[in-house]
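Action item from last week, closing it out:
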Amino acid sequence: MGSRQEAAQESHIQRQTLDDPELRAALKAFNELLSTSMGPHGRIQSIQNGVGGPITMTTSSSRLLSAMSFSRPCLRLIVSSVQGHLRNHHDGGVLAGSLCLHLVLNAVEVESVGRKCVREVYEVLLKLIDEYLTSDDCAVSVTVDTSKVKVMLSFVRSILASKPVCGLRLASANYLAQLVLKAFLNSVPDVSSSFLTDRVFNLQFDKKDITSSEVMEGLLLEWPEKSAALGAQELPVIQESSKNVRVALVTVSMSGDAEEFLTNQMEAQPQVVQSAADLVLKKMLAFCDWLHEKRVGILLCQKVIHPKVKSYLRQKGIVFVERLGIQPVAYIQDLTGSRPISSVIVPPPESALGQLNSVTHRVVHNKGFLHLQKSNSYVCTLLLCGAVDEQLAELKSVVHSALKGLYSTLQRPVALCGGGCWQIHLASYVRRVVLEREDELCSQLRVTRAQLAAATNAFASSFESTALSLLSPSLRAWVDPQHCHMWHVPEGVDVAAETTAFSCACGMVTDADIDTSTLQPLLGRENSVWRDGFLKRDDFVKTGCLGMKESVNPDWLVLDTLDCVVAAVQTAAMTANTVLSITQYIHDVN
């Protein structure tokens, strides 16, 4: 943490409400930051603290929010909710934050309706959306399973292409999508099993082209024991009679500091300290003898190994890796079946040892590695390459999101129509349902029709605004009344006279499916075509889960993760209601 530039002054407590122009301006500024970070056309944000320090360039919500600090309680509440969503889903943070801010700001602008009434309407509409998105009648859901490779690739590519910092062109996006899908398919077990990780270990290499990335079976662990300049070398490893290599995974320090049993600091004479150190070293050497007796071929230590212990291990012919860190430990467990050994003073049970089929020395991008492999294992290593650190950090984040999205399709093989289509569709769905159940909802919520319409419009317009954030500046947004998808049309193009084949933003609806003369411009909240009666009761068509028509090109689909979207919408709406329920925000401006 940085030190204060000025001495602390007397506390000055400030009270604000959502009607305060200063707080509303802060909410709008934060919303502008998130909205302009959304999608493949988002602006790259450059973040640096006020006293210097590293610069973070990103459009990823996890990196964006962690690089910023917030003093206003209202903003900190929203950021905390978004970060909680990211901890569970690793994606959709920009959507959750932007949608939440739109819901709050739209509610504040509805002066004719009380905040309590708006919150109650929001709760009802959120429940409607949840039920619709997870139902079989949802018309913006697309079946995604491993039998449809092109659709799966489009799903992955949609996630990868959403971050402009990654700098992915079409060829590199396709290549990386294939790698991610390959890593995912390699990690999926044939039968249901229990694992500690997602089974895809990630290694990053900077100053390399993205197309140098690759997937390898097993684990690659950095190993400077042998010089990479000499190339891959033969590695004699102790084996069992079955030709397997036994593995010991140690998670306690083997540096001789006796951290196992000396948890407190004590003062003692130098000879006493030396005597204790010698005793610990003797115990560790005895542990090495036990490893040799059990024919252990490789010792993997999370922390540091004492130099004398290293020398003794070499004499015994045991390969060792130290300073692993915490990240690879769970992957090693999944690969080898070993259990962490938390004591080198007391010999562990033999069942704690794991097994490998082979341990080889490899040189990858001028670095030495141990390549650990085991047959019928579902653990693999994704070697991710990037030209600069910022690109590599963004690639790591987005690849993790893509893998998380793929794993979610195993539970429910469904994705949502992306590119803004599901937002526009949900906005029209909400307005249609409210129109059909107007009397019932007015009675249930004890509001007038005008109040219900105003609150509903605030809710639906928030979804339209997030969809418009995905639009390139050179394009205009249009909507078809039949499927309620968003269409991106260049400025000045007459869609009715257009002869070139084109499709909606997600690619699931083409001009062969609709009459293009019925397309209407989506002008935003102030001039929304929906408020002028464009949407009628009979306009909205229930089509159910969209099938793959012949006119649809699966290579150009834009898809979003269903679970992530549902959770992001829930987070946004519930957080917005919490913000609207608080009458005063109090903080110390010192």
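Closing note: The chain has a mean pLDDT of 84.
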